[in-house]
Amino acid sequence: MIRKKVPIPRRGRIPRSATDRSTGGFSLLEIMITLPILAICSLALVSVTVFASRLSRIVCNQVAAKNIAQSYFERMAIDDFSHVTSANYPSVTLTSSPPLYLDHVRKSKCTVDILITGYGTANSGSANSLVDNTANWTPNEWVGNMLLLTHGTGRGQRARIIGNTVNTLTVDTALNPPPASDTQYAINGGKTVRITTRWSYLGKEYRARIESLVIDWGPRR
Q: Any idea where the domains of the chain sit in the sequence?
């Protein structure tokens, strides 16, 4: 009986399969392709993070600006009606002292424009009009609102406004007696307050505004 010789592998040499060679690591070409992709993804992630941070700051500033405007109005609402004037509630500028901050940490300042309008004392009038030479209204801004004569000649009368110039109100109902130089009036029965807060962020201007009516509820105690 003839025995067949079986080849014995040489010591220290173990054959590798194709699978073994493929798990040895990344090739240089694969690395060169991957690096630009990772760089693009990283830039996109940084851009999204920066945008989200800026958007969050804008929203926070908007909320703070609204709160500032609202706080001014709430003070007026509980104040004596006669005390609610531009002299007692002046506008705030960037140079005002103390400054008004939206964000104390970032030292972000803002301005507050306060306009109190829609009331006063007439200089003259007629059956269908009232003239206040101190007014500076936008033409027809009061159309549809109610004019109430609160003191003096014609007290207690009311009429709907159908038009206005910078200093004259025209109404749809005859006023008898007509307004005179002692007639005090209030549109919608109060003082219209318009408060606008403005600020800058990254070179862009922003603003928040509220408008409401302060009513005369009598003397405060």
A: 58-215
Residue 105 corresponds to which tokens in the numbers above?
A: 């940490």
156, 158, 153, 155: which is closest to 181 by C-alpha?
A: 153
pLDDT digits (tens, 9 = 90+) for 126-141: 999 999 999 999 999 9
Q: Could you give the CA distance from residue 169 to residue 163 in angstroms, rounded to a whole number?
A: 6
CA dihedral of 182, 188, 191, 197, whole degrees rounded to 10: -150
Query: What's the sign of the alpha-carbon dihedral 44, 50, 54, 60?
Result: positive
What is the identity of the amino acid at 2? I
Q: What is the pTM of this model?
A: 0.73
DSSP string across 20-70: HHHTT---HHHHHHHHHHHHHHHHHHHHHHHHHHHHHHHHHHHHHHHHHHH
Please give the Cα distance from 39 to 35 (Å, whole number): 6
| φ and ψ of 56, to 5 deg | -65, -40
Residue 55 in tokens: 């958007």
